[in-house]
């Protein structure tokens, strides 16, 4: 039995409409400090996965958690003035 397979996915996988828009790229750029702070927090946690955390590890995790929270607060404060779509009038 021969299966008939379409190649549309391979043809449209790299179509122009699949690329992120400028607005999406701008949103990612705005969120980049939060993303990087989360990566630092994950790195701090990963270091302690296979051993008991030391006092230095605990401090590193606390600092990374504070930086992640501060980055989130800064992002919310920056976007607070922007109007959100679908909001009440």
Would you kindly provide a written description of the structure presented here, covering whatever features stand out?
The structure is a single chain. The protein is an all-alpha fold. It is built from 3 helices and no strands. The protein has helices at 8-12, 22-47, 55-79. Helix 2 (22-47) runs antiparallel to helix 3 (55-79). The termini are far apart. The model has no long low-confidence stretch (mean pLDDT 84).
Describe this structure in a few short sentences.
The protein is mainly α.
N- to C-terminal distance: 61 Å
* Beta-strand content bin: under 5%
N-to-C order of helices and strands: HHH
Counting helices, strands and paired strands, the structural category is: mainly alpha
Tell me, rounded to a whole number, the average pLDDT: 84
Largest sheet: none
* Unreliable spans: none
- The proportion of residues forming helix, as a percent range, comes to 55-70%
Number of helices: 3
Question: How many strand elements?
Answer: 0
Shape: flat
Question: Radius of gyration in whole Å, from Cα?
Answer: 21 Å
């Amino acid at each position: 039995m021969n299966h008939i397979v379409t190649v549309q996915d391979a043809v449209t996988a790299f179509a122009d409409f699949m690329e992120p828009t400028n607005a999406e790229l701008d949103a990612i750029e705005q969120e980049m400090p939060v993303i990087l702070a989360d990566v630092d927090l994950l790195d701090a946690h990963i270091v302690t996965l296979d051993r008991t955390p030391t006092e230095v590890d605990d401090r590193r995790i606390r600092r990374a958690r504070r930086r992640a929270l501060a980055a989130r607060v800064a992002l919310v404060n920056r976007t607070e003035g922007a109007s959100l779509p679908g909001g009440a009038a």
